[in-house]
Amino acid sequence: MSRLLVTGAGGMLGRDLLAVLGSREDLSVTATTRADLDITDPEAARAAVSGHDVVINAAAWTDVDAAETQETAATAVNGDAVANLAGACAASGARMIHVSTDYVFRGDATTPYPEDAPTSPVNAYGRSKLVGELAVARLLPESGYTVRTAWLYGAHGPNFVATMLRLAGERERLDVVDDQRGQPTWSYRLAERLVALADAALAGRAAPGVYHGTASGETTWYGLARAAFTLRGLDPDRIRSTTSDRFPRPAIRPSYSVLAHDRWTAAKLQPLPDWRTSLTEALSSGTFP
């Protein structure tokens, strides 16, 4: 029986990972939350990893704007702690699957970013996540996997889709930006792919390196909001198009966050389905209010 450690198990993605893994009688799963495990402590990370065959790291500093003034703290979690886990995996022989972000890219492309595209983050959060990616590549060249995701939504944490549906009951009109393009990704479907990648890694069928874990297709935040309203039987014309300069934020957001998915096919794994398909499934699953 393979032994699998999930860090960040209390978060949106972590909770979906546990739901997916719950039906796997062939796996022994250890789940740790921030309260259980301080991954910034090298000794604690080493002790937690010991005895496991695969580590899926879903723990992260996710406050993009706060990272602008607390970059050292963000990097401690998104970079240095990842190095702790990767070093522990290297020492024990475990494989590691680390969840990263589209924010490692500059966001000014016009075609989907391939997995080997040059990185150039434009904000502190992206820089902190890149430190983690580089640690996995350096310490686990033969057994480390980085899966970049983006525009994540799900049942177990704050996210754009949940916010839009909540605001639908509070406001008649909503202004949503239409000049940022990306791939809305359901956290449950991503969790399924992460577990499939773990299986393939254990079986020696998936090469180490970077994979892009985002839904297929692309849209804008405006397009996503209209789609969510339509699926809920709400009038999508209540959503009005606007531009990012109307909503200034401390951290710069990439304007183009569309990722390519070629490495899934090379590993004989299916990339995530189209974002519309997943959104339809998510909103009919009964998990959203």
General description of the model:
This protein has helices spanning 12-21, 42-49, 71-92, 124-139, 160-168, 187-203, 221-231, 262-266, 275-283; strands spanning 2-7, 27-32, 54-57, 95-101, 144-149, 152-153, 174-177, 181-182, 185-186, 209-212, 219-220, 239-242. The chain is α/β, with parallel strands linked by helices. It has one domain (2-158, 183-215, 260-272): Rossmann fold (3-Layer(aba) Sandwich). The longest helix is centred in the first third of the chain and has 22 residues, at 71-92. It starts with a strand and ends in a 6-residue tail after the last helix. The strands form 4 sheets. A 6-stranded parallel beta sheet has the order 2-1-3-4-5-10, sandwiched between helices.
> What kind of oligomer do you see?
single chain
Number of helices: 9
Per the CATH scheme, the topology name is Rossmann fold
The CATH architecture assignment turns out to be: 3-Layer(aba) Sandwich
Give the CATH H-level superfamily. NAD(P)-binding Rossmann-like Domain
Low-confidence stretches: none
